[in-house]
Amino acid sequence: MKHLQHTIKAVITPGDQSGYVGSCFGIPVVTQGATLDEVVKNLKEAIELHLEGEDLAGMGLAPNPSIIITYELEPEYAKA
């Protein structure tokens, strides 16, 4: 029996020049937004569109998977 993923993992990073970029691991979904709220909304919509009409089990996904989003930050170092 094949183990099905119950989550889709994604990461949000700052854009090269402005805004934010969201991309998924395991499925080819990448989107962007001017704000964090916008990129999260766009990421959810892009994932839904990508999965629409697909055989989720064939993709290794359980029905109605949730989305886990990580936000990648550059560290700030204390100035001596």
Descriptive notes:
This protein is of the alpha+beta class. It is 20% helix and 39% strand. The chain contains 1 helix and 4 strands. A hairpin with a 4-residue loop joins strand 2 (20-25) and strand 3. The termini are far apart.
N to C succession of SSEs: EEEHE
- Extract low-pLDDT stretches: none
Largest sheet: 4 strands, mixed
Helix content range: 10-25%
Tell me the strand percentage band: 35-45%
**Average pLDDT value?**
91
What is the multimeric organization of the chains shown? single chain
Tally of strands: 4
Give the helix/strand class: alpha+beta
Spatial gap, N to C terminus: 57 Å
Shape: elongated
Query: What gyration radius follows from the Cα positions, in whole Å?
Result: 15 Å
Count of alpha and pi helical runs: 1
Strands of the widest sheet, in order across it, are 3-2-1-4
What brief labels describe this structure?
80 residues, alpha+beta
Which helices and strands occur, and which strands form pairs?
Elements: E1 5-14, E2 20-25, E3 30-33, H1 36-51, E4 61-71
Parallel strand pairs: 1-4
Antiparallel strand pairs: 1-2, 2-3
Describe the structure in brief.
With 80 residues, the chain is an alpha+beta fold. It is 20% helix and 39% strand.
